[in-house]
Amino acid sequence: MTDVKWSMRALEFANCNCSYGCPCQFNGLPTHGDCRAVVGIKIERGQHGDTKLDGLKVAGIFAWPGAIHEGHGEAAIVIDKRANEAQRNALLRIVSGQDTEPGATLFNVFASTLEKVHDPIFTDIDFEIDIDRRRARLVVPDCIDSRGEPILNPVTKAEHRVRIDNPNGFEYKLAEIGRGWSKTSGPMKLDLADSYSQFCHLNMSQSGLID
Q1: Which of 39, 90, 200, 203 has a beta carbon 3.0–4.6 Å from 172's, enabling a disulfide?
Q2: Local structure of residue 23 (DSSP, 8 states)
Q3: Is the pTM of this model over 0.85?
Q4: How many whole angstroms from its chain centre is CA 161?
Q5: Phi and psi angles of residue 66, each rounded to the nearest 5 degrees, phi first
Q6: Whole-angstrom distance, CA of residue 15 vs CA of residue 48
Q7: Nearest 5 degrees, angle CA 196-CA 123-CA 54?
């Protein structure tokens, strides 16, 4: 870790291959024994040292052969092509956990479990999210096609609303839970269908979650 201070207030959509609820959120083992995930982040306000990050987007593809904490993970990171060189460097340092106190954020925690990280991709990221409505759309040309929707009641087909409250977590304090579909290509190929999704505010700094 360096002495660089950073913070961000962002919106996050994540879709993984676990069943609704995702055992990993409760320190359990993943539904199918491995973990596959797609993540989209839209920064509303952010700063890394003197570099502003307002309005920029980041996306990621992740895969672990077992539970995340067992390591041997693989990742591909996509950075908004609108970012200038300073912003690109800042975002890469943040998402790689380099400027974060150990264990304080998802970036630092997940980075410690990766053994292969592909070269970053700088391109368009089309990402829209409505947390309260549990809906999101994430498209990265030739790389990611992902969407999130509410869980439906199996009998009435009405939208089902459930949340996870995690006040001491390293990613979010409160997340709306839904379901998602994701297909990826490029450096990593995933195919997720009707599986766990979360929609949340990602408010954090180098020291952890902020209000």
Answers
A1: 200
A2: G
A3: yes
A4: 21
A5: -140, -150
A6: 27
A7: 80
